[in-house]
Amino acid sequence: MKRITVLSGIVALIIFLVLSSWYFDLKLEHFNETSKDNMEVVFFSFEAEGESILISQGNDDILIDTGTKDQSRKILDYLKLKEINEIDYLILTHPLEGNIGGALDVLEQVKVKTVIQPYCGTESESLLLINKYITDKKINCIIPTKNRKFILGNLNLVVYPPLKKSYTDVRNYSLATLVSYKKINMLFSANANKKRNQELLSVHWPKIDLYKIPNYGKENKLSRELIYELKPNIAVSTSDSVDNGIKEALFKSKSKVNFINGEYLIFSSDGENIQCTNRNGEFNGK
């Protein structure tokens, strides 16, 4: 009788181990960060102020801003590494050198199908050269005056232009871009300052899974209110710190915050979940 009890216990243990192995295999397969179907989001890190974000899914690629001219080399090297020789949408959010300075180099060395940029009353020298190149090469260029929706494969984009034609602060021309992949929503609002944040607060936003913190983490009067409105699951700062007011808002919103401390900050999403695949400089608001 004792032998039968021991044998039954061994059988039960084997069944438990097999089922546990099967269960944990399913858990591991729930998110496969190396899947070719995944969306990849790359935040480029630069020593000086400058921003560029590459969003890729399958053979579809979006580049938001290009950093300065000196910084464009890093972007081009990464595109070459990933064998990306065509950009579907190049979004130039607003005419500051840290956002459009490298655009001409990108346009000259990579095929760009469409450029999206805001209307801006005054054009910098860099923007004049960029627009001349776009015109000369007959590249499709969109200057949205109202919210525009775009579908790119499995990616859905909504571009929100500034509501006014003239601002004192050039950062308020910032295009905001909502990128959705299946159930994942990401918001990139460039360097939106107070007046632009006020405009963005009037939008009925969906659940935001990833939010790029504007202005390199510098606070303005409405930046906290926008964070409270969005309550992003993940927030990314393209600098190595954020102002205390923003840090407090992110903490109260229970957002996980990533700072870019290395060469790149990379996120991967299967459309259900999104996670950082080269985590550095993270603090958890939760």
Can you characterise this structure?
With 286 residues, this protein is an alpha/beta fold. The chain has two domains: 1-30; 37-284, Metallo-beta-lactamase, Chain A (4-Layer Sandwich). The protein is built from eight helices and 16 strands. It has helices spanning 2-29, 72-81, 97-100, 103-109, 125-136, 194-200, 223-230, 244-252, and strands spanning 39-44, 53-57, 60-64, 86-91, 111-116, 140-142, 148-152, 155-160, 176-181, 184-188, 210-212, 234-237, 256-259, 264-269, 274-276, 282-284. The strands form two sheets. Strands 6-5-4-3-2-1-14-15 form an eight-stranded mixed sheet, with helices on one face. Strand 3 (60-64), helix 2 and strand 4 (86-91) form a beta-alpha-beta unit. The radius of gyration is 22 Å and the shape is globular. Residues 13-31 and 281-286 have low confidence and may be disordered.
Helix content: 25-40%
CATH architecture of the largest domain: 4-Layer Sandwich
> What quaternary form is this?
single chain
CATH class of the largest domain: Alpha Beta
Structural class: alpha/beta
Integer tally of domains: 2
Please provide the count of β strands.
16
Radius of gyration: 22 Å
Give a quick precis of the structure.
This protein is an alpha/beta fold and 286 residues long. It is 30% helix and 27% strand. The strands form 2 sheets. The chain has an 8-stranded mixed sheet with strand order 6-5-4-3-2-1-14-15, covered by helices on one side. Strands 7-8-9-10-11-12-13-16 form an 8-stranded mixed sheet, with no helix packed on it.
